[in-house]
Amino acid sequence: MRDFTNVKRVVIKIGTDTLSSDGGINTAFFTGLAADVKRLRDEGREAVIVTSGAIGMGAGALGIKERVTGIKMRQACAAVGMPLLMEEYRRAFQEHGIAVAQVLLTADVLNRRTSYLNLRSAFETLFLLGAVPVVNENDSVATDEIGTAFGDNDRLSAFVASKIDAGLLIMLSDFDGLYDKNPREHKDARPVPVVYEITKEIEAMAGDRGSEHSTGGMKTKIEAAKIAARAGCRLVIAKGGLPNVIPDILAGKTVGTVFLPKQRLSQRARWISNSLPRGVIRVDEGALKALAGRKSLLPKGVTAVEGEFDAGDVVSINDRAKAVTEFGSAELRLIAGKHSTEIESILGTGKKDVVAVPENIVFSE
To answer: What is the average pLDDT across 214-223?
Structure first.
């Protein structure tokens, strides 16, 4: 449960509040983090840091004290803050002879299969070179409107952990774990040291979003735990300000809340599950039942096609599953409700006779 002896890769997600102190930079935290990562490397482990703080640091440099809202303002603050943030990491890790590498991501990188696979190669190369990847969302270009934003670094850290087959994801924030109710409002709130399964009851325990410059909260951490669980990765939420918090977690001490995975999906299944669908394929109940029984999706079971997408894109099926489609939306509209034997006469030769095969279909939890 808390035996992390065999964990070789660790992703450490750091929240905005952990990186700041009294409105300024928490230099002592950066120093301690670098020492902890050096210790991990000496133990034969590899570490990735997923960092927040660029928007908050940029806002501080620009003299903005209120919460930064609006895409343009957040992008501007991130552009100012990211080099300042990386300089803090560079200085701290340089003391231990460790190079840090900036990796800026948008959700679109993970949605596209080719770039998704290239990202893994990039991490592997950085590990071979002895560099520590420092990952952040590319806030200066990512927008919710165009579907390139993760929305928060909690989910981003879980996607990264899933991508690199990490055995442990550590989330450091101003929370010291999950409670059965909001401890800021209820004095009788009790900590939850272990979560074996994320149920509706567990989700109900999550509070609202975080502080002034952050976008996270316990709700987003629960969502991240679901993503990590599908990769067979354990997740620990702990207070970043605790002394020796990372070594204590890896030593198996009861720190924060640990979320345990129930299953481990393949890399491809994880990519499908975590991708933003480009459209929706509506199917009848008979087709849905067949899919649940690990059968292919046939055009005869398709009742409607929503959105515009290409062959090879990830789409939703009745909001119950995601799949890689063998047909683009225009072609699929032509063969919806038809028998597979009619495909050639409608679309010509060289086309598949199924819409999606079982290995490319992943049902939602």
So the answer is: 75
